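Researcher: Please predict.
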Amino acid sequence: MQPTAPDTPPPPDAPSTPSTPSGPDAEPVSAGPPPRGPRARTTAAYLRYGAAKAGGAAVSLLAVLVTGFFLFRLIPGDPVRTMTGGRPISAAQLAQYRKEFGLDLPMWEQFTDYCRKTLTGDLGTSYQFHTPVVDKIGEALPNTLLLTGTAFVIYTALGVFLGTRSAWRHGRLGDRLNTGLALTLYSVPSFWLGLLAIIVFGVGLGPVPGLFPTGGMESGGAQGFARVLDIAHHLVLPVLTLVAVEYGQTLLVTRSALLAEMGSDYLTTARAKGLRDDLVRRRHAVPNALLPTVTLVFVNLGRTVAGVILVETVFSWPGLGGLFYQALSVPDLPLVQGLFLFFASAVIIMNTLADLLYPLLDPRVGR
């Protein structure tokens, strides 16, 4: 009989392996989920960031919905009596009109009915036009986009270009002239500048003859390319007014953001490598100074969809701004509420899109 060898312990540096159960009833050992990589963590952080911004936008839209209903009911005036044009009307007819438009219901019932219809896409029927509010917005929206969209493209390009040039040559004569003119025009009321443009370039002043129409979108009667030229002729003064008032804000924001970047070390390194000054500005400085300008561009884009009430009213432009002014004068409550909700929604949606774009421009945002 041979003696049994004693059990020898494993060396101290040997890796310890967990005992694996064997037999028919043994269960496989799970190795656990694989570790998440940097890309997955970045995507998850962006999704959380986007969900938070979308939630904030939803709360803002709800606040606009509530505010729009109660705010315009504080406007003095009786919509029914305004629609009759001051003609004599009996008490029975007045009661019939109020019942037709739902103005005889308690306030809380009007509010719940308004919310229910709005959430289903029904903004009501206009008191003065007797057509659905959605249809009136659809008719005026292309005219507003033509006017404010044209002005938006011009004043954004002009503001960004002059803002970068002024910042890169800050303190020089051109910078002082650009900044002074931008501040002056930005502080001028748009309706006053529009009236001034009508007097000087529409009616004519002294040796300056009237060159452009004073209002409206077209003269009428023209067809084809002649109609396009007629509309472009009517566009000049309102677009000029909008560009003069709005480009200064873009210029000042772009200039300020670029000035904040100009002292950075990476620009000094780029110059030390021998890159041209123009190349350093275009490829390095301007892209890193875009965040404030992107915010302003998206806000202005929302206002482009909403229209500019004062300018459209001064130039009798048949857009959303002029329609809103007409609705306020009644007051046409369904039309005013629908336009207010449309205007505010456009700005909120564009702000949310700008927030969602930030992490793509600067990965530090949203972490």
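Model: Residues 1-8, 12-20 have pLDDT under 50 and may be disordered.
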